[in-house]
Design a protein that fits this description.
This protein is of the alpha+beta class. The chain has 9 helices and 25 strands.
């Protein structure tokens, strides 16, 4: 006997209600994650002052405003009272300018444009001030990223400090701030040592900064951001860029493996066949090691740890190999970040390339990938020019489920003659 119209109607209403609630929850999560990714572009009020000594982490707590003004202006005074365009620090003037939302060197162009320094600026601190108008009070999450160190004041109090030398192309640090209804004063200091010079600042919730309303709506697609970075262990190889060449973008398409091995080993060969621990490339050896999921210099750190290099390494390319084992055929997104340029091969094919000189402390690029059931050799090349040297690799949340990673040479589905390789057991089962 069929259901009555009344019972059927009640069931349909219940289903519609459940679906609607699920949709609302998902939409809320999407909006919250997307809104939190909006970066405050300004215009901010800027002041850039050379440090006394070395910049970066070493200058985090150095009051460069006080030194430049001979005590008349201090970080504390600006943080508590704010500033106006045209206010002076010694002979320097606070000046307004917007900052780019992307890139690993977005502060340097601002400093050049405002005549605080020329060219590639090192050993200098930037101060960026802005007023934030909030419609309601409460604790909110603030996100920042920086190359190099960062210090943040909110309504006159230090709310965050990270004395670190790193690259940055996106948010890296999260912390809470107590927002007042109405006007709030935000001061951000980024101390640059060398290489890229960048700053990224965002805050959750609704607010207005320099007349611009946040969130801007829609987010920037970071809903797909993976939870985890692949730390390995990877198999590592480091090789010099071509003699006379600079690293970074200029060496993206230069095969340093071919050069080091005099033609015996190539990028293409490793991308197709993988590598083994101890296997040689000329006088160099593939070496197993894990990479940190944090920081703007994690490749340099692993190279030094594995004794593949010493100190601050420039004009080299790193190669990182790992085998991605998938329980089934699947498609999804791969996320990467790099300082400087990056090239990625999956299953012997080039799937991503970004010939760029930039800093990185997190994911920056995303691209579509196809994983086969079983082994999938993954090779990542990062070409370093100078400053930080970093690499971040991960998959979107859905794609990464059930994946395993090892450094065994992958079993390719095709041989060198591009013929399908099928085990006799499989043929027998199919017959």
């Amino acid at each position: 006997m069929g259901k009555s119209k009344k019972v059927w109607g009640r069931e349909m209403k219940t289903k519609i209600l459940v679906v609607s609630l699920v949709f609302c929850v998902l939409l809320s999560v999407w909006v919250q994650r997307g809104n939190a990714q909006d970066k405050i572009v300004g215009p901010w009020l800027w002041m850039c002052v050379e440090v006394d000594g070395i910049g970066g982490a070493a200058a985090t707590d150095q009051d460069t405003l006080k030194l430049e003004s001979k005590g008349k202006v201090t970080e504390e005074k600006v943080a508590k009272n704010g500033v106006k365009a045209g206010d002076k620090v010694g002979k320097l003037v606070w000046s307004p300018a917007k900052i780019a939302e992307a890139g690993g060197n977005n502060v340097n162009p601002v400093a050049n444009m405002l005549d605080f320094c020329a060219g590639d600026c090192d050993n200098i601190s930037s101060y960026a001030f802005i007023e934030i108008e909030a419609t309601s009070a409460g604790n909110r999450t603030m996100r920042v990223g920086s190359d190099d160190s960062i210090k943040v004041w909110f309504n006159g109090k230090v709310v965050h400090k990270n004395a670190v030398d790193r690259g940055a192309g996106d948010f890296q640090d999260n912390f809470k701030v107590a927002v007042k209804k109405g006007k709030n004063l935000l001061l951000v200091k980024v101390s640059e040592k060398g290489g890229g010079w960048s700053m990224f600042v965002g805050m959750e919730g609704k607010f207005t900064a320099a007349g611009k309303k946040y969130p801007k709506g829609g987010g920037d697609g970071k809903i797909e951001l993976p939870r985890d970075k692949i730390t390995g262990p990877w198999l590592w190889m480091m090789a010099e860029a071509k003699a006379g060449w600079q690293g970074g973008a200029a060496s993206t398409d230069f095969d340093s493996l071919d050069e080091a091995s005099k033609g015996k080993v190539t990028e293409e060969k490793i991308a197709e066949e993988g590598a083994k621990a101890g296997q040689k490339v000329g006088k160099l050896k593939w070496t197993k090691g894990e990479i940190s999921a944090q920081g703007g210099n994690n490749v340099n750190d692993v190279m030094v740890k594995l004794k593949l290099g010493k100190g601050d390494i420039d004009h080299h390319s790193s190669y990182a190999y790992i085998n991605v084992v998938s329980p089934d055929d699947r498609s999804g997104l791969c996320w990467v970040g790099s300082d400087d340029s990056i090239k990625v091969w999956l299953n012997g094919e080039e799937v991503h390339k970004n010939a760029v000189d930039r800093g990185a402390g997190n994911f920056q690029d995303k691209f579509e990938i196809d994983l086969n059931k079983g082994d999938n050799p993954l090779l990542v090349k990062v070409s370093e020019k100078g400053g930080g040297w970093s690499m971040f690799v991960g998959f979107d949340t859905k794609t990464e489920r059930g994946l395993k990673f090892n450094i065994k040479q992958a079993k390719m589905s095709v041989d060198s003659a591009d013929k399908l390789v099928t085990a006799w057991g499989k043929l027998k089962r199919a017959s």
